[in-house]
Structures are given as C-alpha cells and as structure tokens.
Amino acid sequence: MIQEAADIIKKANRVTAFTGAGISVESGIPPFRGENGLWSKYDPGFLDISYFHSNPLESWKLIKEIFYDFFGKATPNKAHYGLAEMEKAGFLDAIITQNIDNLHQKSGSRKIFEFHGDSRDLVCVSCGKKYPVTEIGLDNLPPECTNCGGVLKPDFIFFGEQIPEPARTNSFREAEISDLFILIGTTGEVTPASEIPFIAKENGAKIIEINIAKSSYTDRITNIFLQGKATEMISGLVKELREY
Ligand code: NAD
To answer: Domain with 216 in it: what CATH number?
Structure first.
C-alpha cells in the first residue's frame, strides 16, 4: 500500500497535505476528541469568543496552560519532518493545517496555510494590532495591547469566529488545483475545514489518507487508506520517495 501511494505521489502534478490534530499526537499533543482528548479534561466553552469577551482572565488561564505551557514545549516528530523533506524534494506543494501548534513551521516546511490561525501571535480585540507572543509574554494575564490597552487574544480562531484570510482562500484554491490530497490525522468533523478534501475530490483529486482509525472521509472519498501512525506511514512514504 505504501509503495502504491508513493507511486501516486510521484506521478501527481500538485500535491497538498491536509493535516489535523492526529499528526501531532506523537509529539505529545492530544487531539480534542476521543478517550484522552482535550475535551475529556477541559470544557470547550472557554474557547468560545463570547465567553472570552466577557471573561478574558478565566479564558486566558486555560489558554496559557494548554496552548503555551503545554503545546509550547512540543517538538516536531518524524511525520512533520517527513513532510518538510517531501516539500524540499519537490513531492509536496503545500500543507493546509488545522493545527495551531507551529510544528510544521518548526520542522522546516515552507508553504503552510494555517486554516485556524496560529499561536505565535497575539491580536488586540480592540484595535487589531498583532504582536509576537514572545514580545508581550504571558506573565500578566490577560495580556494587554501596548497601543490601545485592549485585551489581546491568541491569533487562532475561537468558536464563533471567521476563518482567517488569506489562509481560507488559499486553502480552498488548493482544493481546486491539486490532483492529489494526503489527509493526515483528521476526523473530518470540524467545518468548514472538513469540506476541503471533498471539494478536492469533486475537482478530480485522488485521496491518500493516513489515520490510525477510519474517519468520515475513509469510506466516502479515500482512494488509498494507510491505516497506522502518522510517523510510521510518512517515514515509509519518504523512504520510497528517496529511492525514486
Ligand atoms: P480530532 O481531534 O478531531 O481528531 C484527531 C484524528 O487523529 C482522529 O481521526 C484520530 O484517529 C487521528 N489520530 C490520532 N493519533 C494519530 C496518529 N498517531 N497518527 C495518525 N492519526 C492519528 O482532530 P481534527 O480533525 O484535526 O480536528 C480538531 C480541531 O482541533 C482542529 O480544528 C484542530 O485545529 C484542533 N486541534 C489542534 C491541535 C494542535 O494544534 N496540535 C490539537 C488538538 C486540536
């Protein structure tokens, strides 16, 4: 199966990887859903934008604990590095990620569309000014805008917010122009991100899927299902592609 998938990658003209929380599980970051998912420990309500506006301090205490103290310590795994190597070797054109953990950037990938934003920057809810989180620090919560004194929030989307541009437009464009999508570690339950692989398929793309379990894509649009851990499957693909 891995060899067959590698052959399809070699023959494709434009290849896009579409990644979800599952690619970072082996870096120690749990997904949201499932038995050990973040939502079994935390109430997702603290990431609701209206809750944030009325309770910024309470929301920030959990945001800092999960997305900065915990996610911030994670390092890329073989799956992230494998995608970066595929891009350098000309086998991968872009990554659309739903993740906000920066691990694709840290592993050296270049063309990344962060569909849900990122945790590197903070944005002022009043004046819109952005700052790298490293410039502001998170010792005093909630962090404040040095320009207008407004509350800063992470530059990733909360429930109830719009998908950021230009990531949104660029991602849907990949679904129009790619002839191969590689789905990695995503359930396909979070809209509108989940629609992207379906649009790619409608536009004629083949779908290779890597996941430890079937997703909402597997029986509907997947051509080749590589069932297993992201690190093992991508390392296998990279090994085949290196010999090309
Ligand atoms: P999800 O939490 O809904 O599902 C994770 C998927 O990964 C599942 O299909 C699971 O079977 C699969 N998986 C688990 N371990 C795997 C492994 N080792 N190898 C391959 N697959 C594995 O994730 P989602 O579909 O990405 O959607 C959840 C939303 O939560 C996204 O919007 C994402 O932004 C966000 N999220 C991000 C992070 C992160 O930035 N790392 C972490 C948690 C949630």
So the answer is: 3.40.50.1220
Please confirm, yes or no, whether 116 is among the known catalytic residues: yes
Torsion angle, alpha carbons of 201, 215, 32, 24, to 10: -70
pTM, rounded to two decimals: 0.95
Look at residue 34 in the predicted model and tell me its pLDDT.
73
Kindly state whether residues 226 and 123 are assigned to the same domain. Answer: no
**229 CB within 6 A, ligand 1:** yes
Residue labelled with tokens 């800063």: 152
What is the distance in A from the centroid of ligand 1 to the CA of 163? 18
Count of domains observed in the chain: 2
10-residue averages of pLDDT along the chain (244 residues): 96 98 94 81 89 95 92 94 98 97 97 96 96 95 96 96 97 98 95 97 98 97 98 97 84
Q: What is the CATH number of the domain that holds 65?
A: 3.30.1600.10
Determine the distance separating the centroid of ligand 1 and the alpha carbon of 39, expressed in angstroms: 12
Answer yes or no: do 11 and 64 share one domain: no
Question: How far apart (Å, rounded) are the C-alpha atoms in residues 109 and 100?
Answer: 14
